[in-house]
Amino acid sequence: AQSVTQLDSHVxxxxxxxxxxxxxxxxxxxxxxxxxxQHPNKGLQLLLKYTSAATLVKGINGFEAEFKKSETSFHxxxxxxxxxxxxxxxxxxxxxxxxxxxGPGTRLSVLP
Amino acid sequence: xxxxxxxxxxxxxxTGQSMTLQCAQDMNHNSMYWYRQDPxxxxxxxxxxxxxxxxxxxxxxxxxxxxxLNKRExxxxxxxxxPSQTSVYFCASSEAAALNQPQHFGDGTRLSIx
Lengths: 112, 114
Prior knowledge:
Chain A is mainly beta. Chain A contains no helices and twelve strands. By secondary structure, chain B is mainly β. In chain B, the strands form two sheets. In chain B, strands 2, 4, 5, 6, 9, 10 and 11 form a seven-stranded mixed β-sheet that branches.
Protein backbone atom coordinates (compact mmCIF):
# COMPACT_ATOMS: atom_id res chain seq x y z
CA ALA A 1 0.00 0.00 0.00
CA GLN A 2 1.08 3.52 -0.66
CA SER A 3 1.06 6.44 1.73
CA VAL A 4 2.22 10.03 1.84
CA THR A 5 3.37 12.06 4.83
CA GLN A 6 3.68 15.81 4.72
CA LEU A 7 5.69 16.64 7.76
CA ASP A 8 4.39 20.17 8.31
CA SER A 9 0.74 21.17 8.28
CA HIS A 10 1.70 24.86 8.14
CA VAL A 11 4.86 26.62 7.03
CA UNK A 12 5.38 30.36 7.33
CA UNK A 13 8.19 32.22 5.52
CA UNK A 14 9.04 35.83 4.79
CA UNK A 15 8.85 37.12 1.25
CA UNK A 16 12.18 36.64 -0.51
CA UNK A 17 13.36 33.78 1.72
CA UNK A 18 13.62 30.11 0.70
CA UNK A 19 10.71 27.69 0.86
CA UNK A 20 11.00 24.04 1.92
CA UNK A 21 7.91 21.81 2.02
CA UNK A 22 8.65 18.27 3.10
CA UNK A 23 7.14 15.07 1.75
CA UNK A 24 7.92 11.44 2.50
CA UNK A 25 6.24 8.50 0.84
CA UNK A 26 6.00 4.77 1.07
CA UNK A 27 5.36 2.52 -1.89
CA UNK A 28 6.09 -1.07 -2.72
CA UNK A 29 7.21 -0.20 -6.22
CA UNK A 30 8.74 2.78 -7.98
CA UNK A 31 5.95 5.31 -7.99
CA UNK A 32 5.32 8.54 -9.80
CA UNK A 33 5.34 11.57 -7.54
CA UNK A 34 3.63 14.91 -7.96
CA UNK A 35 3.27 18.24 -6.24
CA UNK A 36 0.02 20.17 -6.65
CA UNK A 37 -0.87 23.67 -5.45
CA GLN A 38 -4.35 24.82 -4.44
CA HIS A 39 -5.21 28.48 -4.11
CA PRO A 40 -8.28 29.43 -2.05
CA ASN A 41 -11.57 28.30 -3.56
CA LYS A 42 -9.79 26.82 -6.56
CA GLY A 43 -8.99 23.39 -7.87
CA LEU A 44 -5.56 21.79 -7.78
CA GLN A 45 -2.90 22.81 -10.26
CA LEU A 46 0.06 20.61 -11.15
CA LEU A 47 3.40 22.12 -10.08
CA LEU A 48 5.73 19.32 -11.13
CA LYS A 49 6.04 15.56 -11.49
CA TYR A 50 8.71 12.91 -11.07
CA THR A 51 8.51 9.96 -13.43
CA SER A 52 11.81 8.06 -12.97
CA ALA A 53 13.88 10.32 -15.20
CA ALA A 54 16.04 13.06 -13.62
CA THR A 55 15.91 13.08 -9.83
CA LEU A 56 15.82 16.90 -9.70
CA VAL A 57 12.57 18.06 -11.20
CA LYS A 58 11.83 21.62 -12.20
CA GLY A 59 8.26 22.87 -12.14
CA ILE A 60 6.31 26.02 -12.73
CA ASN A 61 6.75 29.31 -10.86
CA GLY A 62 10.36 28.54 -9.85
CA PHE A 63 9.59 25.44 -7.78
CA GLU A 64 11.82 22.37 -7.75
CA ALA A 65 11.70 18.98 -6.07
CA GLU A 66 14.35 16.33 -5.58
CA PHE A 67 13.56 12.64 -5.53
CA LYS A 68 15.72 10.77 -2.99
CA LYS A 69 14.99 7.07 -3.12
CA SER A 70 17.22 6.22 -0.15
CA GLU A 71 15.27 8.67 2.03
CA THR A 72 11.88 8.04 0.34
CA SER A 73 11.53 11.79 0.13
CA PHE A 74 10.32 14.28 -2.47
CA HIS A 75 10.73 17.70 -0.86
CA UNK A 76 9.55 20.85 -2.65
CA UNK A 77 11.77 23.94 -2.66
CA UNK A 78 11.86 27.45 -4.03
CA UNK A 79 14.81 29.83 -3.60
CA UNK A 80 12.77 32.97 -2.98
CA UNK A 81 9.15 33.08 -1.83
CA UNK A 82 6.65 35.45 -3.38
CA UNK A 83 3.39 36.62 -1.87
CA UNK A 84 1.50 34.81 -4.63
CA UNK A 85 2.96 31.47 -3.43
CA UNK A 86 0.68 31.51 -0.38
CA UNK A 87 -1.53 28.45 -0.88
CA UNK A 88 -2.06 24.82 0.10
CA UNK A 89 0.43 22.31 -1.33
CA UNK A 90 -0.20 18.61 -1.78
CA UNK A 91 2.29 15.83 -2.35
CA UNK A 92 0.85 12.91 -4.30
CA UNK A 93 2.12 9.40 -4.98
CA UNK A 94 0.74 7.39 -7.85
CA UNK A 95 1.09 3.81 -8.93
CA UNK A 96 -0.45 2.81 -12.25
CA UNK A 97 -2.25 6.14 -12.55
CA UNK A 98 -5.63 5.31 -11.10
CA UNK A 99 -4.36 5.05 -7.56
CA UNK A 100 -3.44 8.61 -6.64
CA UNK A 101 -2.79 8.98 -2.90
CA UNK A 102 -2.75 12.53 -1.54
CA GLY A 103 -0.89 13.80 1.46
CA PRO A 104 -2.86 15.89 3.98
CA GLY A 105 -1.44 19.14 2.62
CA THR A 106 0.85 21.92 3.83
CA ARG A 107 -0.43 25.44 4.08
CA LEU A 108 2.21 27.97 3.07
CA SER A 109 1.97 31.50 4.43
CA VAL A 110 4.21 34.23 3.03
CA LEU A 111 4.77 37.25 5.26
CA PRO A 112 5.61 40.68 3.83
CA UNK B 1 -10.05 26.42 -23.03
CA UNK B 2 -12.29 25.31 -20.14
CA UNK B 3 -10.48 22.09 -19.06
CA UNK B 4 -12.63 20.44 -16.37
CA UNK B 5 -15.97 22.08 -15.60
CA UNK B 6 -18.02 21.26 -12.52
CA UNK B 7 -21.60 22.28 -11.79
CA UNK B 8 -22.96 23.52 -9.50
CA UNK B 9 -20.26 25.47 -7.65
CA UNK B 10 -22.26 25.61 -4.42
CA UNK B 11 -25.20 23.64 -3.08
CA UNK B 12 -27.06 23.32 0.21
CA UNK B 13 -29.19 20.24 0.79
CA UNK B 14 -31.33 18.89 3.58
CA THR B 15 -30.62 15.46 5.01
CA GLY B 16 -32.24 12.80 2.85
CA GLN B 17 -32.38 14.85 -0.34
CA SER B 18 -30.71 13.62 -3.49
CA MET B 19 -28.65 15.43 -6.07
CA THR B 20 -26.24 14.90 -8.92
CA LEU B 21 -22.94 16.70 -9.35
CA GLN B 22 -21.96 17.19 -12.95
CA CYS B 23 -18.47 17.12 -14.47
CA ALA B 24 -17.35 17.58 -18.04
CA GLN B 25 -13.89 17.74 -19.62
CA ASP B 26 -12.95 18.99 -23.05
CA MET B 27 -9.41 17.56 -23.25
CA ASN B 28 -10.40 14.21 -24.79
CA HIS B 29 -9.14 12.43 -21.68
CA ASN B 30 -9.97 8.78 -21.15
CA SER B 31 -9.94 8.68 -17.35
CA MET B 32 -12.06 10.65 -14.91
CA TYR B 33 -12.19 10.81 -11.12
CA TRP B 34 -14.29 12.08 -8.23
CA TYR B 35 -12.66 13.16 -4.96
CA ARG B 36 -13.84 14.71 -1.76
CA GLN B 37 -11.71 17.13 0.23
CA ASP B 38 -12.08 17.49 3.97
CA PRO B 39 -9.92 19.64 6.28
CA UNK B 40 -6.60 18.01 7.18
CA UNK B 41 -7.25 14.92 5.07
CA UNK B 42 -6.12 15.85 1.60
CA UNK B 43 -8.24 14.46 -1.21
CA UNK B 44 -9.83 11.03 -1.03
CA UNK B 45 -10.93 9.13 -4.09
CA UNK B 46 -14.64 8.30 -4.24
CA UNK B 47 -14.95 6.68 -7.67
CA UNK B 48 -13.03 6.69 -10.90
CA UNK B 49 -13.59 5.74 -14.51
CA UNK B 50 -10.51 4.45 -16.27
CA UNK B 51 -12.24 4.62 -19.64
CA UNK B 52 -15.67 5.20 -21.12
CA UNK B 53 -18.01 2.45 -20.00
CA UNK B 54 -16.10 1.48 -16.85
CA UNK B 55 -16.32 2.68 -13.25
CA UNK B 56 -14.58 1.51 -10.09
CA UNK B 57 -14.76 2.26 -6.40
CA UNK B 58 -12.13 4.33 -4.72
CA UNK B 59 -11.30 4.76 -1.06
CA UNK B 60 -14.65 6.20 0.14
CA UNK B 61 -17.50 5.07 -2.18
CA UNK B 62 -20.26 4.49 0.37
CA UNK B 63 -23.29 6.73 -0.15
CA UNK B 64 -22.35 7.64 -3.72
CA UNK B 65 -23.00 6.42 -7.23
CA UNK B 66 -21.44 7.49 -10.51
CA UNK B 67 -22.25 7.43 -14.19
CA UNK B 68 -19.81 7.79 -17.06
CA LEU B 69 -22.31 9.22 -19.48
CA ASN B 70 -19.85 9.46 -22.38
CA LYS B 71 -16.18 10.22 -22.80
CA ARG B 72 -16.64 13.84 -21.74
CA GLU B 73 -18.98 13.54 -18.77
CA UNK B 74 -18.78 11.83 -15.38
CA UNK B 75 -21.48 12.50 -12.80
CA UNK B 76 -21.62 11.82 -9.07
CA UNK B 77 -24.95 11.14 -7.36
CA UNK B 78 -25.89 11.32 -3.72
CA UNK B 79 -29.09 9.28 -3.33
CA UNK B 80 -29.86 10.26 0.27
CA UNK B 81 -27.60 13.02 1.52
CA UNK B 82 -26.17 12.84 5.04
CA PRO B 83 -24.37 15.55 7.06
CA SER B 84 -21.16 13.47 6.85
CA GLN B 85 -21.17 14.16 3.11
CA THR B 86 -20.67 17.87 3.66
CA SER B 87 -17.45 18.47 1.79
CA VAL B 88 -15.82 19.99 -1.25
CA TYR B 89 -16.03 17.69 -4.25
CA PHE B 90 -13.49 17.73 -7.05
CA CYS B 91 -13.67 16.13 -10.44
CA ALA B 92 -10.45 15.38 -12.30
CA SER B 93 -9.41 13.86 -15.60
CA SER B 94 -6.26 12.40 -17.08
CA GLU B 95 -5.20 11.13 -20.49
CA ALA B 96 -5.24 7.53 -19.30
CA ALA B 97 -5.25 5.56 -16.06
CA ALA B 98 -1.61 4.70 -16.49
CA LEU B 99 1.63 5.57 -14.83
CA ASN B 100 2.96 9.10 -15.19
CA GLN B 101 -0.29 10.77 -16.16
CA PRO B 102 -1.04 13.86 -14.07
CA GLN B 103 -4.63 14.73 -13.31
CA HIS B 104 -6.36 17.98 -14.21
CA PHE B 105 -8.87 19.32 -11.71
CA GLY B 106 -12.05 21.34 -11.80
CA ASP B 107 -12.68 24.20 -9.37
CA GLY B 108 -14.84 22.10 -7.06
CA THR B 109 -18.41 21.91 -5.78
CA ARG B 110 -18.96 23.08 -2.21
CA LEU B 111 -21.74 20.97 -0.75
CA SER B 112 -23.39 21.48 2.64
CA ILE B 113 -25.86 18.99 4.09
CA UNK B 114 -28.06 20.34 6.86
